[in-house]
Amino acid sequence: MRHIEEKINVPVRGKCSVLVAGGGIAGVSAALAAARAGKDVLLIENEFSLGGLATVGIVTIYLPLCDGEGHQVSFGIAEELLKLSIKYGAEDLYPTPWLEGGTFEEKKAKRYRVRYNANQFILEMERLLLDEGVKILYGTKICSVNMDGDKISDVIVENKSGRSAYEVETVIDCTGDADVAKQSGAETENFGQGNVLAGWYYFISGGVKNLKMVGASDISDEEKKQGMKSAAPLIAQRFSGLDGEELSLQMQLSHEHTLLDFKKKYEEDNSTEISMLATIPQIRMTRRIVGDTTIDTSDDKRYFEDSIGMTGNWRKVGPIYEIPFGAIKSKNIKNLLAAGRCISVTDAMWDITRVIPTCAVTGEAAGVAASMYNDFSKVDIKALQAKLRENGIKLHTTEVL
């Protein structure tokens, strides 16, 4: 492959205590937590809307904050954002027992999840962050980082103004793809199985708005070996989510299958119209950090001394997973944390932790940690846990059962 040497003089436009890379649910939660703790926060987002897959990706289901057996396991910003998502009413799956004082048996019968309007959620999240003093930089891609030993000193970005840099004290990688971790030389691992094609969209028929899930996320190869079955994929090809040309093809194929599905509906009812398309590829699992601890599905109800919160299993009733600080901490980059779908997990666990509740829980923990330390190899876990508890977080399974 031919290479061109590029020399660019990059101006340093500013500095911040905490730079949050990515404005999905993890990024929103991290920025919110750090700002509320008094830090100056810069949130970098490639799109011009917040929420990532949860909004512009139209995966508009706020998956459960509970274990399916009547116990809430995710708290703090995870619950705050759920309530914010339905400020103007839920689209579906309204969890009446959880929000209106239901009994334990009623909560057991209905999981704490909801479906929401993506556009309204986008606007409310932006207003929330701005009110808390977070600086948001939209339409901006992180290109590389500048290192000072084993710390990130500057993050280099590009947008309509060209290339520039921001001096940082700490960085939280909420890109979903561990992009900053990769650029900094942190140890990372790719999702080898690849992602199946999906093309979710909203349509209106008979005056009623509907969410159509064309294609769906797959289960892990490990679960297939155990006899679990997944829906047949739309096409045989899988996507890593880490290649520009491949992502462009994935989006085109997604549009193709969305159009085919819509045409069938239109033939049945010519008043049917598409009301919203996903504007980013619906890729779920790509690349993650390799942390001090890697969580697996076998860690159901396992006690972690350094737990920073909990999540349930959206696929199954019963499991509760404590999330250790070691799963969001880079092994070798001292001022870098990860949150959201790129934390340190096995392939089987990846599908469980890539969803909204886990993104919010890990984002909040990372934001709080970044407000307290700029060297995450020296974190006082007890002090961090005390701050999280002040935020209403429950850390261990024994606290909810």
Spell out the key features of this protein:
three-stranded antiparallel beta sheet, alpha/beta, 2 domains, seven-stranded mixed beta sheet, FAD/NAD(P)-binding domain, globular
Can you put this structure into words, describing what you see?
The structure is a single chain. With 401 residues, the chain is of the alpha/beta class. It has two domains: 13-191 and 286-399, FAD/NAD(P)-binding domain, CATH 3.50.50.60; 201-277, no CATH class. It contains eleven helices and 16 strands. The strands form five sheets. Strands 1, 2, 5, 6, 7, 8 and 16 form a seven-stranded mixed sheet that branches. A hairpin with a 2-residue loop joins strand 10 (201-205) and strand 11. Helix 1 (25-36) packs parallel to helix 10 (356-372). The protein is globular and about 60 Å long. It starts with 11 loop residues before the first strand and ends in an 11-residue tail after the last helix.
Residue-averaged pLDDT, rounded? 95
Helix content percent band:
25-40%
Overall shape: it is globular
Unreliable sequence segments:
none
CATH-scheme architecture of the largest domain = 3-Layer(bba) Sandwich
Order of helices and strands: EHEEHHHEHEEEEHEEEHHEEEEEHHH
User: What percent of residues are in strands?
Assistant: 15-25%
Q: What structural class is derived from the secondary structure elements?
A: alpha/beta
Number of helices: 11
CATH class (first level) name of the largest domain:
Alpha Beta
Number of domains as seen in the coordinates: 2
CATH topology of the largest domain: FAD/NAD(P)-binding domain
Number of beta-strand segments? 16
Per CATH, the superfamily of the largest domain is: FAD/NAD(P)-binding domain
From the alpha carbons, calculate the radius of gyration and give it in angstroms. Answer: 21 Å
* Terminal residue distance: 58 Å
Biggest β-sheet strands, sense, barrel: 7 strands, mixed
